[in-house]
Prior knowledge:
Largest sheet: 2 strands, antiparallel
Helix content: 40-55%
Number of strands: 6
Order of helices and strands: HHHEEEEEEHHHH
Number of helices: 7
Bound molecules: heme C
Shape: globular
Distance between the termini: 85 Å
Number of domains: 1
Radius of gyration: 26 Å
Amino acid sequence: xxxxxxxxxxxxxxxxxxxxxxxxxxxxxxxxxxxxxxxxxxxxxxxxxxxxxxxxxxxxxxxxxxxxxxxxxxxxxxxxxxxxxxxxxxxxxxxxxxxxxxxxxxxxxxxxxxxxxxxxxxxxxxxxxxxxxxxxxxxxxxxxxxxxxxxxxxxxxxxxxxxxxxxxxxxxxxxxxxxxxxxxxxxxxxxxxxxxxxxxxxxxxxxxxxxxxxxxxxxxxxx
Length: 223
Ligand code: HEC
Ligand code: HEC
């Protein structure tokens, strides 16, 4: 064997070793990526801070812009699924009818014999199944009353409805603000359990948008 063949062979060996490591890394990388996708929640969608709207000089326009931003939360499926057009909840990002079919009943917490709490516990519950990772849960899980139905309505209509004590549960604007900033069912939307996208931003950011909206006259978008 000549010196030249030896060098060639060892070069070849080095190349295939590098190839092997690269292939292994690629495989490993793909695996890491897959397990990341499987376990992590999708990253929350962004929500702009109330301060971002300070440059809009006209208070009416600023108010509308603030509510429009807050609308990213209000019209997110995490909220809308509990504020449907009919007395039946919807599910998931697509807001499809609840499977199995479910009825709110007189109190919103389920028909006699099949309360929501049969499946929806006090907190999100992990399942062993591969399809549905968690059953959503929070105390007093139930559907919003019919007067608070939002699905199929424009943001302007939802805005008018939220402001109207005849339809919002007799609340003042200050009480609407504290409901949105503190209510636990509202809060659930940012902690919806594995396998569900949280509402955009944070509940604190959302509360500040609503605060600023009220402070600028609580104007509604025209659409
Ligand atoms: C038989 C069990 C069962 C009962 C009873 C039940 N649910 Fe559900 N519900 C589920 C499961 C499981 C999911 C999760 C489905 C998924 O993630 O695909 C779910 C999801 C939901 C969601 C979707 C959350 C989201 O944003 O994706 C809402 C809203 C909901 N249920 C409301 C209700 C209401 C209101 C009641 C009572 C009127 C009720 N459910 C009764 C099992 C049940
Ligand atoms: C698990 C179901 C559920 C989820 C999820 C939910 N809500 Fe509600 N919501 C209710 C119920 C029930 C009421 C009625 C409670 C009351 O009046 O005290 C209600 C009432 C309200 C009200 C009172 C006034 C009105 O005009 O509707 C507002 C505002 C509201 N929800 C906003 C939200 C927002 C924003 C989200 C998402 C970030 C949300 N909700 C998510 C069930 C839900």
